[in-house]
Amino acid sequence: MTTTRSALAAGIDPAAEAALDGLLLSMADDEFVIGFSDSEWTGIAPILEEDVAMSSLAQDELGHARALYELLSELRGDGRTADAIAYDREPADYRHARLLDHGRGDWAMTIARRYLYDTADGARLEGVAASSFAPLRELVDKIRREERYHVMHATTWLERLARREGQPRDRLLAALVELAPDAATVFTPLEGEAALVEAGIMAEPMAALEARWRATITPIFVGLDLPMPPAGNLATGRTTHGEPFRWLWGEFTSVRRSDPEAIW
Amino acid sequence: MTASVSTRAGTSAGAPPPTHAAVLASLSEVSDPEIPAISIVDLGIVHRAEVGQDGAIRVDLLPTFVGCPAIEVIRSAVSDRLEAFGRPVEVSVSFEVPWTSDRISPQGRERLRGSGFAPPAEIDAVRCPYCDSSRVAIDSIFGPTLCRSLFYCRDCRQPFEAFKPI
Questions:
Q1: pLDDT (mean) for B73-83
Q2: ipTM
Q3: DSSP-assigned states of every residue in A167-225
């Protein structure tokens, strides 16, 4: 731990600084992992328009991740770049939600994951939209305008699959069952969360944001006669990652590991 | 927030500092490589362009999308262009205010239409840039770049791209 604080950290209540680090890292890792997962559809999506859509979604999410990692790098002020934070960690040190740990799966799995994530991310972004930490507030203002299109896309597909009996609905139901235990892991409580709320960096604790998320998606799930995600055990929702993530990690770090000193 | 900054020293520090108007005129000659039809000034991504007391030129750019891959290319093009004034140049990418599609100038909107892009409008208000028909259908909200969607005109039967309202 360095004793000098970065210019960006200087304005923050020291009690909240470590928790802010955790918040930014969890948001960045979520966007990075789902962005990279979506890019797996580039070239093989079911139809051309969806190939373009998944690639655009991936590009958006990786862009958000980069901006969040850059903000984190500036906050830490320890000279580690955004790329170093993104790529130079062991799989166990990533803090994305376990919802994003199920492997690409089929199209229904991709849509189920995207819908659950996009709506949960929307609730979380709303929770920091009026943040007292100005750089995060400004970035989130921009990000929310883009995420609106992600929610439109995921909702359209969720409805399309849910309303078509047979394979589309059956596969969607199977995906929702697989994801159910991890569906709410975006709202895994952060260490030091109370200090974030106290400092006005977050409006509410994660449990309150989860309640808002459930209120938003309930009418959609009821309308489509889909099973609502159960309350899960969130204690380890961001700290235990399984084999599918180890594989993904191997993929997204392969170029970096081949030549860590390369300049792009 | 200042996302990133590039600074270049002036080549001939003795040159008189340019006027603000001269800097803007110079920026009007730079375009987004993904949208060559209009300048970055008409696109509304120039947030701030200042000539300081010290004669240094400082420009803040707003990315259209957070993940826009063109922004580094644009920043470099802006630095190259402004270096001609022979003063120190600092170009930053900022999220201080969000770029929105309302920032595209009226002239910019006309130029977009002229090159076959429908200017930003809500989905049900998009018109064909070729025949001005309102009988258009959205094909995909995601297009070849982050900022564009795909449409089809039922009258002139032409596919076209429309800017996303954001």
A1: 96
A2: 0.86
A3: HHHHHHHHHHHHHGGGTTGGGPPPTTHHHHHHTTSSSS-HHHHHHHHHHHHHHHHHHTT
